[in-house]
Amino acid sequence: xxxxxxxxxxxxxxxxxxxxxxxxxxxxxxxxxxxxxKDEMGIAKAFSDLSTCLMANPQKMAEAQMKLMKDYxxxxxxxxxxxxxxxxxxxxxxxxxxxxxFKDEEWDSSFVFDFIKQSYLLTSSHLNGVVAxxxxxxxxxxxxxxxxxxxxxxxxxxxxxxxSNPAVVRETVNTNGQNLxxxxxxxxxxxxxxxxxxxxxxxxxxxxxxGKNVATTPGKVIFQNDMFQLIQYDPATPQQFKKPLLIxxxxxxxxxxxxxxxxxxxxxxxxDQGHTTFIISWVNPDERHADKNFENYLLEGTMLAIDxxxxxxxxxxxxxxxxxxxxTLLMSTLAYMTAKKDKRIASATFFxxxxxxxxxxxxxxxxDEGTVASLExxxxxxxxxxxxxxxxxxxxxxxxxxxxxxxxxxxxxGKESFPxxxxxxxxxxxxxxxxxxxxxxxxxxLGNKLREPGGIELGGVKxxxxxxxxxxxxxxxxxxxxxxxxxxYMGALLPSGPVxxxxxxxxxxxxxxxxxxxxxxxxxxNSELPAASDDFLAGATQNPGSWWTDWQQWVTDQVGGKExxxxxxxxxxxxxxxxxxxGAFVKMRLDxxxxx
Length: 596
Known about the structure:
alpha/beta
């Protein structure tokens, strides 16, 4: 039995913290004034339209209900037989092999939990089927109701409730309910961290320190302005390739996804291969950067970084690499430089980069005129988009993995989050300047103007990707839910120079952060670049291991790519050392409360 004194102490602490948090939340909301809930994304209207369409075809609804009843009768027969000891009957509904929620053996061995599981799966399947089969909805509305129906279904999974999750029931019995007390304490902690909004902790934030056990590759900051710091990494070989390498990460994340730990750091691997590696560390903007536009990120970002690399190395030809949105910026920079007849970029590599935004995947749910307009209104009030807003959107795309699994672990099981460097990085989100993000959403996602010759103008130059002749290497991931590979493939067809497209395994992060030592996933290559992505994959060759080695072969095969010189040390040029890597900009937290 638990110690009564400890239980009383725990309950008292929970009550004290809950009371304090509720008082602060009520006070905050009272100061903000009372406002009616707003349907900024048009979700209520979308489901109203769905109801109208469904009611217009009562026969189809009756057929769906009869089918559901038929499946439930089959489930009742199956469960009754199982209760009586029959084990040879096939299950009526089974979870997908990739569904991690029902891995506990009691979901199969216990007829009660098995019935709950199959009942949920049957209902989920029918709900999805009815919504997907609705007739008369426009494409945008259909996409919304499909997506938010799945969110509703995921939220109501029996794994998310204490009494219907066998693992939670077991833990509650074994700990005499201490797991629920711990879980409520964790819930209060996360509510306090979110200043009244739930910010689910995915990992132990105190287990990592930048420059100590993440972002550890030694280097120096050698340049900085209001937009970014430029890091040059210490050489790891006595000789280095003559052409330096500049990496452009996305501005919506911090750069150290490419430098988590020694064993999976792309930055360390490139220095070990002999590259003089530089990386941009973008500033975490606040209201002072409200007027910074996409053009500023080009003129005061990538262009100045290229100038700094040239000064630091004395080389007029450099290799470049980029990740996700950083690749969109890099290709825009290439088009700008092409118009200016600036030929300093010798090669360009794009990790999971979209240039043609006609098929952005499930992110399209959040991208219509009404949603963007309401987002612009919020951004303009404070001058930036808060990083937690964007992080929440991405997490919803994989809600079971990135929301509900942590809710169960933290609040029902009462456990602390496992220290995981990738999730630490994922939680360390950044803000985005209002004007820049508005420009990006309207011109790229909504207007898809980047693919149009002269569709946008930057720095007085009409951007035309079709005139870019720089050798390009595109790598995407077959399971990417943020930048779907078929969309990135369409973008790879836009430049007119030599292009190699590589399709890696796994998703948006694991497909890129895939070091050769791990020997995982594999990748597909095709010497041809057909117009259709399906034709590319049909004619592709699957290769074992990591695409990193393929990229190394490609970049060194470029003109002058194998030429080497004595290793370069940061600060040995006209650009002196400012501070040690990873630098002050990456250490800027995502909110002022943490900074204080």
